[in-house]
Specification:
The structure is a single chain. The protein contains seven helices and seven strands. By secondary structure, it is of the alpha+beta class. It has one domain: 3-Layer(aba) Sandwich (Aminopeptidase), CATH 3.40.630. A seven-stranded mixed β-sheet has the order 1-2-3-4-5-7-6, with helices on both faces. Helix 1 packs across helix 3, helix 3 runs antiparallel to helix 4 and helix 4 packs antiparallel against helix 5. The longest helix is centred in the first third of the chain and has 22 residues.
Length: about 190
């Protein structure tokens, strides 16, 4: 069963998400230095959780086994100011890779659907709990809301094998996006039901 995450959950969720994304192709690309990757990932997740606590929706399970971070519908793509504010909060995490990561993620952020939609920014569960229904529980509240409000949902999957997982929830592949000198990201949308 999913519940809204609170600030008291954030430190544990940062650790859970760091473990969930430890071998993620996009995270390996963002953090190529193995000696600092785990520390930087945890730092990134702490900052992103704080951002989504202010402007989004964060769901977890009773035992804090995973998290889904959602951005609510907006009337247009993020403004340059909003995107820059986000970057200023997370760029220090990337250190020397900051320009490379920003150059790649900026255009990706502008490819969101133009109509209002819920954006699934992050879905991750503790590796020991994967394939146990945690992800399904974390998706359910917002997808149900999408259905009630007849709104689409959008995400970017960082692994090709995750496409089939999200298709089970009604997401459809739009197109891959190639990160410069990096892996593909798979853009997916779930039409309003």
């Amino acid at each position: 069963m999913a519940r809204r995450a609170t600030g008291e959950d954030f430190e544990r969720l940062a650790e859970v998400l760091q473990r969930a994304f430890a071998t993620d192709p996009v995270h390996l690309w963002m953090f190529p230095d193995e000696s600092s990757r785990l520390r930087r990932q945890a730092r990134l997740f702490r900052r992103v959780l704080a951002i989504y606590a202010r402007a989004g929706a964060i769901w977890t399970t009773e035992d804090v086994a995973g998290a889904s971070l959602w951005e609510p519908p907006r009337q247009s793509a993020p403004t340059v100011t909003q995107f820059m504010d986000f970057l200023l909060n997370i760029v220090p995490v990337f250190w020397r890779r900051a320009f490379t990561v920003a150059r790649a993620m900026g255009p990706l952020a502008m490819l969101h659907p133009k109509e209002p939609h819920w954006y699934l920014a992050i879905l991750g569960s503790d590796p020991e709990r994967q394939r146990s229904g945690v992800g399904r529980a974390l998706l359910a509240p917002v997808l149900a809301r999408c259905d009630r409000e007849r709104l689409p949902a959008y995400l970017e999957a960082s692994r090709e094998e995750n496409i089939a997982y999200y298709e089970r929830f009604g997401f459809e592949l739009i197109a891959p996006y190639e990160l410069p000198d990096g892996p593909s990201v798979y853009r997916m949308v779930r039409p309003a039901h």
